[in-house]
Design brief:
The protein has 902 residues and is an alpha/beta fold. The longest helix is centred in the N-terminal third of the chain and has 25 residues. The N terminus is likely disordered. It has 37 helices and 20 strands. α27 links the parallel β11 and β12. α4 crosses α21. The strands form 5 sheets. A 6-stranded parallel sheet has the order 10-7-11-12-14-13, sandwiched between helices. A 5-stranded parallel sheet has the order 1-2-3-5-4, with helices on both faces. It binds thiamine diphosphate (TPP) and magnesium ion (MG). Thiamine diphosphate binds next to α5.
Length: 902
């Protein structure tokens, strides 16, 4: 998107600037006649006339400049505002108390622990936006009603804690330990983290840009559940609160057309437009609100601007010529920020002073009144009007652009200043001023101690607050797991995959798709399975599912698909099960998160299977995966076409040799690189049990490949080994040999290892056992855990890492090969009885066939053979001449380029 298009020169005020030769009286006449139409026939007729005029002008050859903007004014005029249903005075009192406690928790935390951080100014700017929501809109989750979903702006977390403190849901001790979670009795996490506060936070929002996108897909997933009959149709809403600076993140606006395309009128964005981000103004030289308005209007959202508070209404009313609205549209945000920190006299001179007629409008008002002209986002009546319009809007999503002041109420301590985002400490005078401004009942002496303040349990404030929440169905945010555990063990479902393919060559992807197909038919989990693909179903051979379970479409299929005469036609359906997301891994991941957390959000055990090109997973959307982990999302990520040498042809940007290394970083993610169908079946069955029967907050990453080979039957009961990360797949047939080796392979490279085993045996007399390493991550975590326990419990009988247990009696040299970085085998080598030689695919991929790629990366059976012989030579077991002969026999080019740096 070209930012230039949205600079302030494109603002509507310029569009309506008076051209040469046009008399003021002419404008006046047009405006008056529009007013009279409005009065006599209402806004719809007025809009129709304007639309016809525009069409007429176009036909007449008038070149009307395009603008998706409306004037820099409130979308809802004062005369159309609904009555505010609450007790405004009391709500202000409650809000003030929350403001105080939110500030107190940050100031106190930083007094106790220098630089512990925390944010005051974000909540200060957004307090009214939240309080109107809490008192009138956000519905809690209960048995009767699923409740609304609210994504709170991460940096406003202190406000949510302070409210929960008034509600009696968070103890003073916890408040005291804000950002000091490890203190006795617990504390509060800096931002919304369901992992850390699983009874409170539902959605992690602090990595900017993730929550807007997640909210869109959440709203869409809610519809999916309804259309598939998995939950009743309700009018529950998804609210997402974001910062205006946050909208710079590409993810924030990246999916807004999906929301309008899907007509998500269950979705409401509230953008807290304080015109500032961390370092300074969001658009000092432009107008972020107008920029966002045109982006959202262009995407066909319902845009409601809440810019000016009620104090402006009488002035606007006096302005019959539209001069004030025009003036409002002229200033760039940097100038508006300046007005916030300036005196009333300055506002008079620099804002109204541009035209004597404007000055006349505010002549009766003293300077102090000018300084206190509120912005819309701080006026509960305006905010209420916007929210009401938003929840009543039908046919599409709504975004509310609310103007606020960053650090509102902090005065000299940081209201509207560039440094305000970082403000964590207030001096005594600043604290007293804040106390007085918001009427907190603390005397000067007490106030400077910044105590938490909670009125008596039976105070009218707390009674009001409780009554409002009861009326709205209970407290929020509140996270609870509402789903019932699954009961079946699914032995029957997975058993057939333990038998192998009887010589038929299939890839692990095909094997997985076979399992998926079976799972979709299962009486218990069939309906719960949510297959998710980002335009890659054909790549993974899943097109047969199009027909059998259908692709979800909220409008069904309005066309006859071009391939209707074929067996596997492209079937879209309102109750379709597959989420075919188009080319968006981020969007697909957001669907994965919505489906994988439905056990908590909706009490429904949906089981997402998100299958994608593995290179475009961790590498591209790792932050979403991290958020999924924080959110206790359950489900299976399938890295398809994985392996740097197994995906032939596609080259450098596609061939994944990294994802298993990146997967190491996500604590509650189980990562597997299986070689055979039965391994996948064991992992899936156990995963479903752990997540959906035992309720563990874990999820899975499984890489699957597109190389076809015969799938063997499970060699005895190796389930435990598969899950723990390794098991002996094939013993040497010549164990009496003096030359011994243990070979470790994973994924498709296991076949290379098996070939090497044969070569070693037949050509060099080496007896090698072959191990399938299904999860280096699991072995690594186990080894570290054992080390840790031994360190902490020196008196206990030392525990032995699983790797060491496996290899206790395994003789010979050790060689590992995988399609991933060499660091994977290396990181478990310290628990092996002897030195390990690692082969892997460090370096950039190439467009080539598998054989050439495996030669290039030195991971094929020849290199595994060579590595084994070399290890044996290093141990003095064989002569160098054997290696020389092998290099020749195997056709290895010793002068080939190093794949890591070429
Ligand atoms: C992805 C990401 N990048 C950077 C940050 C650091 N950060 C925290 S708050 C902030 C500024 C927020 O500005 P805005 O979105 O306008 O919110 P406000 O506090 O003004 O309401 C930044 C850059 C972050 N949290 N996430
Ligand atoms: Mg901001």
């Amino acid at each position: 998107m070209d930012n230039e298009t949205y600079t302030h020169t494109d603002s509507p005020s310029d569009v309506i600037s008076v051209p040469h030769g046009l008399e003021d009286t002419q404008i006046q006449e047009w405006l008056e006649s529009l007013d009279s139409v409005l009065e006599s026939s209402g806004p719809e007729v007025a809009a129709e006339i304007l639309e016809r005029l525009r069409a007429h002008a176009t036909v007449a050859g008038i070149d009307l400049p395009f603008s998706a903007n409306t004037p820099y004014a409130n979308t809802i005029p004062a005369r159309l505002e609904p009555l505010f249903p609450g007790d405004q005075q009391l709500e202000r009192r409650i809000k003030s108390l929350i403001r105080w406690n939110a500030l107190a928790m940050v100031v106190r935390a930083n007094r106790v622990e220098h630089n512990i951080g925390g944010h005051i100014s974000t909540y200060a700017s957004a307090a009214t936006l939240y309080e109107v929501g809490f008192n009138h809109f956000f519905r809690g989750r209960s048995e009767e009603f699923e409740g609304d979903t609210v994504y709170f702006q991460g940096h406003a977390a202190p406000g949510m804690y302070a409210r929960a403190f008034l509600e009696g849901r968070i103890s003073p001790q916890k408040l005291e330990n804000f950002r000091r979670e490890l203190k006795t009795g617990g504390g509060l996490s800096s931002y919304p983290h369901p992992w850390l506060m699983p009874d409170f936070w539902e959605y992690p929002t602090v990595s900017m840009g993730l929550s807007p996108l997640m909210a869109i897909y959440q709203a869409r997933f809610n519809r999916y559940l309804e259309d598939r009959g998995l939950k009743p149709v309700t009018d529950a809403k998804v609210w997402a609160f974001l910062g205006d600076g946050e909208t710079d993140e590409p993810e924030s606006l990246g999916a807004i057309t999906l929301a309008s395309r899907e007509k998500l009128d269950n979705l409401i964005f509230v953008v807290n437009c304080n015109l500032q981000r961390l370092d300074g103004p969001v658009r000092g030289n432009g107008q972020i609100i107008q920029e966002l308005e045109s982006a959202f209007r262009g995407a066909r959202w319902n845009v409601i601007k809440v810019l000016w508070g009620s104090e402006w209404d009488p002035i606007l009313e006096r302005d019959t010529e539209g001069l004030l609205v025009k003036r409002m549209g002229e200033l760039v945000d940097g100038e508006y920020q300046k007005l916030v920190v300036s005196s009333g006299a300055y506002v008079r001179e620099h804002f109204f002073g541009s035209d004597p007629r404007l000055l006349a409008l505010v002549e009766p008002l003293p300077d102090e009144a000018l300084r206190r002209l509120r912005l819309g986002g701080h006026d509960p009546r305006k905010v209420y009007a916007a929210y009401k319009a938003a929840v009543e809007h039908r046919g599409g999503p709504t975004v509310i652009l609310a103007r606020t002041i960053k650090g509102y109420g902090l005065g000299e301590a940081g209201e509207g200043k560039n440094v305000t985002h970082q403000q964590k400490k207030l001096n005594e005078d600043e604290l007293k001023e804040f106390r007085s401004r918001f009427g907190i009942p603390l005397n000067d002496n007490d106030c400077v101690e910044v105590p938490f303040y909670r009125p008596a349990e039976d105070s009218i404030e707390l009674q009001y607050l409780r009554t409002r929440r009861e009326a709205l169905g209970g407290y929020t945010p509140k996270r609870s797991v509402r789903s019932k555990p699954l009961v079946a063990d699914h032995d029957e479902l997975f058993r057939e995959f333990f038998d192998g393919s009887e010589g038929r060559e299939v890839s692990t992807t095909m094997a997985f798709v076979g399992m998926l197909r079976k799972m979709l038919k299962d009486p218990e989990i069939g309906k719960l399975v949510v297959p998710i693909v980002p335009d890659e179903a054909r790549t993974f051979g899943m097109e047969s599912l199009f027909r059998t379970v259908g692709i979800y479409s909220s409008v069904g299929q309005k066309y006859e698909p071009v391939d209707v005469n074929t067996l596997l036609y492209y079937k879209e359906a309102k109750d379709g099960q597959i989420l075919e997301e188009g080319i968006t891994e981020a969007g697909s991941m957001a669907s994965f998160i919505a489906a994988g957390s439905a056990y908590a959000t909706h009490g429904i055990n949906t089981i997402p299977f998100f299958i994608y090109y593995s290179m475009f997973g961790f590498q591209r959307i790792a932050d979403f995966i991290w958020a999924a982990a924080d959110m206790r999302t359950r489900g299976f990520l399938l890295g398809g076409t994985s392996g740097r040498t197994t995906l032939s042809g596609e080259g450098l940007q596609h061939q994944d040799g990294n994802s298993h290394v990146l997967a190491l970083s996500v604590p509650n993610l189980y990562a597997y690189d299986p070689a055979f169908a039965y391994e996948i079946a064991v992992i899936l069955q156990d995963g479903i049990r752990r997540m959906y029967k035992d309720g563990e907050s874990i999820f899975y990453y499984i890489t699957v490949m597109n190389e076809p080979y015969a799938m063997p039957a499970m060699p005895g009961d190796v389930k435990d080994g598969i899950l723990k990360g390794m098991y002996r797949y094939r013993k040497a047939t010549n164990p009496k040999s003096k030359l011994r080796a243990q070979l470790f392979g994973s994924g498709a490279i296991l076949n290379e290892v098996l070939r090497a085993q044969e070569i070693l045996e037949t050509k060099y007399g080496v007896a090698a056992d072959v191990w399938s390493v299904t999860s280096y991550k699991a072995l690594y975590n186990d080894g570290n855990e054992v080390e840790r326990l031994n360190r902490l419990h020196p008196g206990d009988k030392p525990r032995v890492p699983y790797v060491s247990q496996c290899l206790a009696d395994a003789p010979g040299v050790l060689v590992a090969a995988s399609d991933y970085l060499k660091t994977l085998p290396n990181m478990i080598s310290k628990w092996m009885p002897r030195r390990l030689a690692s082969l892997g695919t460090d370096g950039f991929g190439r467009s080539e066939g598998r054989a050439s790629l495996r030669d290039f990366f030195e991971v094929d059976s020849r290199f595994i053979t060579l590595a084994t012989l070399h290890e044996l030579h290093s141990d003095g077991k064989i002569e160098k001449s054997v290696i020389d002969r092998a290099i020749k026999d195997l056709g290895i080019n010793t002068e080939k380029p190093n794949p890591v740096i070429s």
